[in-house]
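Quick note —
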Amino acid sequence: MIPLAHTINDECINCGACLPTCPVDAIEEGEEKHYVKETQIDSDFELLFPDDYVNNVTERLTLYTELNEITEEAALQEYQHHLRDRFGPLPEQVSDLLNSVRIKWLAGRIGLEKVVMKKGKFLGYFVGDQQSSFYQSKTFTDLLQYVQKHPGVCRIKEKQTRNGLRLLLIFEKIHATSEALEALRALVGETAVAVTNIS
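Predicted structure written out below.
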């Protein structure tokens, strides 16, 4: 029998196959691996603080900076309550802005490097490196199974781009950021409610 190395390197895809064979019980199933550092969003939705909602330019810039530093839902909820308390009910653009942050988080979790939400469509561009271990990960396998079970909801297709062949996740009939968010949450198994314009 070949001795096992008791270390996990960057090629590990966190499949759990080595768990039962580890002679020193040193391996634990860890958190999901992140394959995307930051998801880029391109949208025809207005994702901003309107001038008539926050009329001070310096204050708007501060709010954008604070929003950019938020990395978890609880902090985003607190930020949202602060906005309501200070400036009043959230206009559509602000709701869309907050939802776009959540969309970025979920898209990154499922391996989308870029999201385009335009003309009623959601296009998610998967990891560009076709040799990435993402394509052997449980995350990608689960996503493929979801797409196969829900052919009327979303689909995956290949598209030739300037940077070569890319794999895309497509949702049709996405006319609001809340719809895009709910579609992604259903895909990853989350059930929380998106921000709506109701205050």
